[in-house]
Design goal:
Helix content is about 75%, strand content about 5%. It has five helices and four strands, in the order ααααββαββ. Strands 2-1-4-3 form a four-stranded mixed β-sheet. β3 and β4 form a beta hairpin. α1 packs antiparallel against α3 and α2 runs antiparallel to α3. It is rod-shaped. The chain starts with a helix and ends with a strand.
């Protein structure tokens, strides 16, 4: 065993830690929670609009019902006066009858408008009820997913902490110059700075080394730092 085999163990721990960090960021529960929160945000916006429309519909209905009640009161007053016998002038009677007919026509139109307003309001109220029900479902789903995400992240954090402890122990025996080169290479080679040499191939870039280079490496002392000609990674010989 050489210091480079120790370095390879450090690399294995770094690779495992990187995978755990990636796993933490891409948890299925996290994606599901994000989708749930997005849907909830869209639903809240829709609910705000529909609730406003329902409130406006209720105001319209109350206004029309008020107009209808007032008009019915006027029709009743006119009928009472018309049939009381107090008015005897034919022209006045004809004018009152014409006015009564106009008011009844307006009353019929108002009654239709009230029915339409009631129907529209019922539809909007049903939509509000359905949206509120769905909001409750999403709130519950979000709460459940937040618990699941926290549990999954905690599990990953425990595994990551163990990897980092093991990494620290493995790195303790690495010389400062080798460690500095390793960290430099890791920064520009997607986190893989040390790789095993297996059957003449670099375990990092997976390219075969020239036969002459493999033969040369066999003659190098075990403690000699060797690097892949293709990717410049530190090669760890068997």
């Amino acid at each position: 065993m050489t210091v480079f085999h120790d370095l390879l163990r450090v690399q294995e721990h770094d690779t495992a830690a990187a995978r755990l960090r990636h796993r933490r960021q891409t948890l299925p529960e996290l994606a599901e929670l994000s989708a749930t929160e997005d849907e909830l945000a869209r639903l809240e916006a829709t609910l705000t609009d529909v609730s406003a429309a329902a409130a406006n519909g209720a105001r319209t209905q109350r206004r029309l019902e008020g107009e209808l009640a007032l008009l019915e009161s006027k029709v009743s007053e006119l009928d009472a006066k018309l049939y009381s016998g107090a008015v005897t002038v034919p022209r006045e009677l004809q004018a009152m009858q014409t006015e009564g007919a106009a008011m009844r026509e307006r009353r019929a139109a108002l009654e239709d408008e009230v029915l339409e307003a009631m129907s529209a309001r019922e539809i909007l109220d049903e939509q509000v009820t359905e949206l509120e029900r769905r909001r409750e479902e999403l709130d519950a789903q979000g709460a459940r997913l937040r618990v699941a995400v926290a549990e999954a992240q905690a599990e990953v954090d425990r595994e990551l902490a163990a990897e980092l402890v093991a990494r620290t122990e493995a790195a303790a025996v690495i010389p400062a110059d080798v460690d500095a080169l390793y960290e430099q290479l890791r920064g520009r080679l997607d986190g893989i700075a040390a790789a095993p040499l297996v059957n003449g191939r670099c375990g990092g870039c997976h390219l075969a080394l020239p036969a002459t280079e493999v033969a040369r490496l066999r003659k190098e002392p075990p403690e000699t730092l060797v690097r892949c000609e293709q990717c410049e990674r530190i090669l760890v010989r068997p």
